């Protein structure tokens, strides 16, 4: 089962305050533990919403709204993707989140990621094959160095 740990934004992350050396070290230690346990698949912090945009579609037409966005509680500051055997195991990992983050006052959200089998018959064999090809391509692309860097 895959889960996303969502690190909710707060006033500091939205102000662009960079983490301290001690928080970076604590997060690196936590991430290394998850990597060594084989559960962490991906994760990154996000720039504040002032550097982002929302795209709202109405009648199929996009409207772009530049950040920042007022409701901090609705924003995310980062994410971690993990793969575990159960929601209980995911929660055990989340409970180990470094206390240094936001001086121990951080809000996290745990959400399960849909898997192909969750879609039942709606994911036809043809669509399943296309999805598998796409995932394989993404994995191969991730393994290759970025030609633009």
TrEMBL record:
Q: Which family does it belong to?
A: Belongs to the YciI family.
UniProt protein name = PhnB protein
Recorded hits in InterPro entries, A to Z, give:
Dimeric_a/b-barrel, YCII
Transmembrane stretches, start-end: none
| A Pfam family reported for this protein in Swiss-Prot or TrEMBL | YCII
Which species is listed as the source?
Collimonas arenae
- Domain YCII-related residues, every copy: 1-104
| Gene3D superfamilies, per the entry | Dimeric alpha+beta barrel
């Amino acid at each position: 089962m895959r889960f996303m740990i969502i690190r909710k934004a707060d006033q500091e992350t939205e102000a662009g305050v960079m983490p301290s050396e001690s928080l970076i070290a604590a997060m690196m230690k936590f991430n290394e533990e998850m990597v060594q346990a084989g559960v962490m698949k991906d994760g990154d912090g996000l720039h504040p919403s002032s550097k982002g945009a929302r795209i709202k579609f109405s009648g199929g037409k996009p409207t772009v709204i530049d950040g920042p966005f007022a409701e901090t509680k609705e924003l995310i500051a980062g994410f971690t993707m993990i793969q575990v055997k159960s929601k209980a195991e995911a929660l055990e990992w989340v409970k180990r989140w470094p206390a240094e983050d936001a001086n121990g006052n951080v809000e996290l959200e745990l959400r399960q990621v849909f898997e192909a089998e969750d879609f039942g018959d709606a994911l036809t064999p043809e669509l399943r094959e296309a999805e598998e090809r796409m995932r394989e391509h993404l994995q191969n692309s991730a393994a290759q160095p970025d030609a633009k860097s």
